[in-house]
Amino acid sequence: MEQILSTLTHLITNYISATGLFGVGFLMTLESAGIPIPSEVIMPFSGFLVFQGTLTIWGVAFVGALGNLIGSLIAYYIGLFGGRPLVEKYGKYILLSKHDLDVTDKFFQKRGNLTVFIGRILPIVRTYISFPAGIARMKLTPFIIYTFVGAYIWSYALALAGVRLGENWEAIKIVGRKFDILIAILIIAGIVWYIRRHIRNNSKLKTQN
Description:
Elements: H1 2-19, H2 21-32, H3 39-52, H4 57-90, H5 98-119, H6 125-128, H7 130-135, H8 140-165, H9 171-208
C-alpha cells in the first residue's frame, strides 16, 4: 500500500508541475467524481508550489473548489439518473427498501445543505457524498452552493498547510491518513448498525406474521 501511495504521489506531483492550475482542477474533478485520487496530495503540493512562488493560494483554492464542484455534479447526476433506478430495482438485495429511499429523500430535503457542506470537509465522505445527494434528488441550487463553499474551505486549508510546511508538505499525508482511518471505522460501524437494524426489523415482521 505504501508503495502504491508513493507512486500515486509521484504521478500527481509530476502532473501538476507540468500542467499547473489546469492539473489541479482536473485532478480535483476526478476525485469528486468518485475516483480515489487523494486531495491530501493534490492541494498540499499545490500549496508547496505557492510557497515556491509558482502559483497563488487564491488561484489553487478556487480551481480546486471549482474542480470539486464539477466532479460533484457528475456524481450527483450519476446518482440521480443511474443510482436511484438501480436502488429501486435491486436495492432489496443490499437491504435497501423503498422506505429507505423515502427516508433519505426527506432527510436531504430537510438537512441536505448541512450534510453536503460538512461532507465536503470530511476525508473519504467528501469523495462520495454527491452520490446519495443525487439519489435523494436534493435541490440542485443549494447542492451547488454548499458543495462549492465546503470544497473551497477544504482546498484552501490543505493548500495553506502546504504553504506553511513548504518542502515538508508531504507531512500532511500522515495526519490525513489518521483521519481517514477514523472516518473509515465510523463508516464501517454505521454499515454494521444498518445491517443489524434491518435484520432485527425483518425478524419482528416475521414474528408478527
